[in-house]
Amino acid sequence: MTPDDGYWMDRALGQARLAAERGEVPIGCLIVREGEVLGSAHDGKELFKDPTAHAEILALRQAAHRTGDWRLDGADLYVTLEPCPMCAGALVHARIARLVFGARNPRWGACSGDLDLVRHPRFNHRMEVVEGVRAEECADLLRRTFRQWRSEG
User: Fold this and answer.
1) Would you place residue 10 in the very low, low, confident or very high pLDDT band (cuts 50, 70, 90)?
2) Parallel, antiparallel, or unpaired for β 76-81 and 28-33?
3) The model scores a pTM over 0.85
4) pLDDT, mean of residues 26-55
5) I need a surface site. Which of 14, 24, 26, 152 has the fewest CB within 10 A?
6) What is the rounded distance in angstroms from the CA atom of residue 53 to the CA atom of residue 128?
7) Active-site residue set
8) H/E/C letters for each residue in the chain?
């Protein structure tokens, strides 16, 4: 963990809060290289009516567009919830150097435990993984949002 990880995760949490306000699952993501934000997004499945519009995918698209390259060598990705298999695969393809996530995702997570796709030995790229940064805040936002949705509905 670096001293800046908490700062960048706070920014990802800001994206997650925006998602909740907009009726999306409250997951936020930031891609940072050398102190510069290359991409910033939150889940957008409802807005875009797109099952692939996860925060990580949208942030990767922004970063690739901004840099003019799909290879994001040297970039760190901060996300409030452990990435799913689809997103984990995209992180590997994009050559993300470091993944920092908040809360674990026991159902769909693919970056820790038994299903660790981002460090799988068969792939040509593996990344450093830091988990648990602002984990309780990230998990609490998800719990509160889902509790609110259930009570409304």
Assistant:
1) very high
2) antiparallel
3) yes
4) 98
5) 152
6) 24
7) 56
8) CCCCHHHHHHHHHHHHHHHHHCCCCCCEEEEEECCEEEEEEECCHHHHCCCCCCHHHHHHHHHHHHHCCCCCCCCEEEEEECCCHHHHHHHHHHCCCEEEEEECCCCCCCEECCEEHHHCCCCCCCCEEEECCCHHHHHHHHHHHHHHHHHHC
Q: Which of 23, 8, 131, 125 is nearest to 81 (CA)?
A: 131
Q: Is 53 in contact with 43 (CB distance < 8 Å)?
A: yes
- Rg of the chain on CA atoms, in Å: 14
AA letter at 12 = A
Is the Cβ–Cβ distance between 90 and 118 less than 8 Å? no
Residue 25 sits at the vertex; the CA angle it makes with 39 and 46, to the nearest 5 degrees, is: 85
pLDDT reported for residue 3: 86
Q: What are the pLDDT digits (tens) for 66-86? A: 999 999 999 999 999 999 999
